[in-house]
Automatic annotation (TrEMBL):
InterPro entries: DUF427 (IPR007361), DUF427_sf (IPR038694)
Domain of life: Bacteria
DUF427 domain sequence ranges: 13-104
Pfam families in alphabetical order: NTP_transf_9
Naturally occurring in which organism (per UniProt): Albidovulum inexpectatum
Lineage per the UniProt record: Bacteria, Pseudomonadati, Pseudomonadota, Alphaproteobacteria, Rhodobacterales
Protein's recorded name: Uncharacterized protein (DUF427 family)
Length: 111
């Protein structure tokens, strides 16, 4: 399967639980087959205080195992809203140290 990773153009923001939890002009765009592109944010550009690692782990045969994170706001939790391939397969090593978010759980936009 062809996977392309390239710098995402522009400044990207992720909003959840009524707050901006990430903002980056160093995000990566991952394009996999005919799936919608996924924006991966460098972990340093995410307010990790809003994220708790969950027990959920998923597996992709092309990228490896992904750990998941719950967004914790003042009044709510968004379960498994983000994921990260902490030790991805070598072919997608560029996404190590990055987080991606489910667009149906948070708002991801390019400014």
């Amino acid at each position: 399967m062809q996977i392309t990773i390239r710098p995402a153009q522009g400044k990207w923001v992720v909003r959840a639980a009524g707050a901006i939890i990430g903002e980056s002009d160093r995000a990566l765009e991952l394009i996999e087959a005919d799936l919608p592109p996924v924006i991966y944010f460098p972990r340093e550009d995410i307010a990790m205080a809003f994220l708790d690692r969950s027990d959920t782990v998923t597996f992709c045969p092309h990228k490896g195992s992904a750990v998941h994170f719950t967004v914790v706001g003042k009044s709510n939790r968004i379960e498994d809203a983000a994921w990260s391939y902490e030790t991805p397969d070598q072919s997608v090593a560029a996404i190590a140290g990055h987080l991606a978010f489910y667009p149906d759980k948070v708002t991801i936009e390019c400014l």
